[in-house]
Amino acid sequence: MLKGTVRISYQKRILLESSSFEAKKGQITTIVGYSGCGKSTILKALQRLNNFVSDYSIDGQDVDSNTNLSAYLISVFQKPSFIEDLTIKEQIAFLYQTESQDMYKWAKKLTIIDCLDKYPRQLSGGQQIRVALLIGLLKNAPYMLLDEPTASLDKENKQAVIRVLQEYANLGNCVILSTHDSYIYDKANVVYVFENKKLIKQKDDFLQESNCEITTRVKSRKKRKYYFSKLLNRKKTEHRYLTGFTILSLFLLVFTLQYGNIIIANQNNALSALSSKEIIVSIPNSGIIDNSINPTTGAATLEKEDIEFLESIEGVEEVEWRFQTYSSETFFSLEYNNDDFEKIIESNTIIKFQNSQEISSSESYFQSVYYNQISYDTDVLYQFQEEGVYLSNEFASLFSEDLTSFEGATIEIDLFIPVYNSIGKVYSMIEGTPFYVEMDSIIKQRVTLEIAGILTGSNMGIETIYSNPIYVSQETLSKYIAENQRDEEIITYVKTIDEDSSISVIKSLDPFEGYERVVVETGPWEPSLYTIICESVVDVPEVTEILNEAGFNAYSSWSEVSSLYDMEENNNSIVSIFLAICAVVILIVNIGIKANNRKDEKSYSQFLFDQLYSKQEIRMIKIRKHMYFFFCRTIQAIISISCFITFLSYTTYLPIEINKITVLMIVTILFVLEVVVPLIVEGKIKNDKVN
After folding, report:
1. Per-residue pLDDT tens for 586-606?
2. Could you tell me which residues come within 8 angstroms of residue 86 by beta carbon, excluding any fewer than 6 positions away?
3. In order of start, what are the domains of the chain with their CATH numbers?
4. pTM of the entire structure?
5. d(CA 32, CA 55)
């Protein structure tokens, strides 16, 4: 038995005073009244959709907000809801996974056998009500609530419905319905009517309540993926087009991202080819006004904390010492006695070719270092071996026009080696007062080295302004420095050539008339130049700016390629904008798809709600559905985009591919589109207003 006290009020206005209501199993109980009197409100109260019922119990069990009414009740409304993209038979199987004889038995009695394989939109209003009644009958709940079940039926179908309800009641179930149909009034066992704001029992056949044991069909939670797939495959044509457009947009997103990376990589290669990620760093001697990268003008030795600062700058990969000098200027720092000036700077270079031919040249040259850990592929024209001396194209051409002939050749040359740091050997005149410069003291050592390769131009790494450069590895020069290190006091004699000159030159280690005796302070050689190797070419300008602000002299070849870098920045911006446009288009299109599908989704929710699924159960079912759609869309997208990219890579030879990052991006975007966006658009179920 179902019983309770009903009282309906609205905005302090009483529509129905407290009235007792009860319905027994084995009977048809009818609530009769004019439209708007509250018949449907009472049925909703019995489903706990409002608070107008109190002292409510079913089969002796008190009913409250925590009671699972789906174990007792089934409801059939005037305007039933369905899942639009499933046939009636599929919807029944979705709920109960059955095509039992009960379904065909009840369908035949309701004259809707031919409706089972149709979609809801193909049914008339009367057929939809009878289908909803069929679904309710199959649940086999002990209490069935119906709101105006015969309102839109003709006489024949009305009689069929009443016969079915009587048969269902005779099975030991309770049928409660609202109506103003006199035909139902005559067939009902118990009739309640509205009279003077009270619910009065007007008819009662006084039948004994049936105590037949009823087994309610439980909700099915298995094999829903099968019906999810049907929902996915039966989406409207415009949804399919929009989904295809989404996959196309995803492809453009992936392609733009990868193609943009290719462009950026190519431009970085171009930057690397035209520029270097090296920066030459020094600290000027205090008091020196005009200081350059040439150590003979007096760069101060860097302290330990200076080097640590260089290493700490963001974008710096390595810091290495550097030594470079130009042979015609090195006499300032050479050790010598009072030889003639010509002999001091005299240097004769000999190339010994593999065919035993020897060619010599007395041309001056610029000596610098290269680093084995850096790739100079863009600077090297001919690579003969890994270790040895690299000759600039200009210097090599002094010996032979056939640059390939240098393979296997050796070079005999005066190698300039720094042996100690000195203060007092060279000074600068500042307002007539000599200022002694800290500088490298260098010796010449005749060596024979193998030729490792010929450069495309004059540069090996950073750009040089000197002619005829040659490059010795830092590792090779380190060995000669270690062999020749000195630490001794030196007495020198200098004479100012011109008081207005910036540099005065040592002429002898022996005293002469007119010469000034100077004690030269010496110490083990420590570098005054360092090379900063940046992580990327594009880090060079920012690191250079930091160095200049910190008081260092910083030289790089960045200014030569700054316009190319600006172009790369513009390309990066274009790629980023296009990626953002693709992402926004994908999002808008999919929000449009979900919003356009909102009516179907609400009907889907209402259909489950009508079967007395709780809102939490509906939420979980819909999340599973969205997850299934997400899984299917992801597989479709990955396969489609893989085919597109494979086709493009073979036809255009672009190095694009599906990688882990691409897959992760597709999965993330589709998860947002197929799971997150639908839940937001749907208002996370609670805004569905199902009732």
Report:
1. 777 777 766 666 777 777 777
2. 94, 119, 227, 230, 231, 234
3. 2-219 (3.40.50.300), 237-268+566-681 (no CATH), 278-322+527-558 (3.30.70), 324-526 (no CATH)
4. 0.52
5. 22
